[in-house]
Amino acid sequence: MCRVIVLDDDKIQLFIIKKILGKSGRFNDTLYTDDGKKVLDFLIKHISEEAVLPQLLFLDLNMPILNGWEFLNRLALVYDDLKRPLAVYILSSSIDPRDIKRSHKYNFIKSYLIKPVSVKTMEDIIKDVE
Known about the structure:
The protein is an alpha/beta fold. The chain has a single domain (2-129), classed as Response regulator (Rossmann fold, 3-Layer(aba) Sandwich), CATH 3.40.50.2300. It contains 5 helices and 5 strands, in the order βαβαβαβαβα. A 5-stranded parallel beta sheet has the order 2-1-3-4-5, covered by helices on one side.
């Protein structure tokens, strides 16, 4: 079983992700939120608790409170201290090559995905995590 955080404020994308993750039956704990600060606080609070930390994070770049780039910058400061590796997938409507290139500076990002993300892509990610 896999723990997942979906950090996104796109209601349609959230609906799709919820359906796919629910259908797979492989995720025992999924948090859906649009508050990157709360996610960072959670990760820091549980930084050494492998059983509590998620294995997978889907991140939208255009977010309220704390945008995706700010989130990634702060995550990069603590990432190496996380007791469990965290696979981060960016979900973005931006097709700007500069954004894609910028995402490559974070070694923990597995992929930059353009919204809307297909069911097939999500299923492939699920298989990868297992």
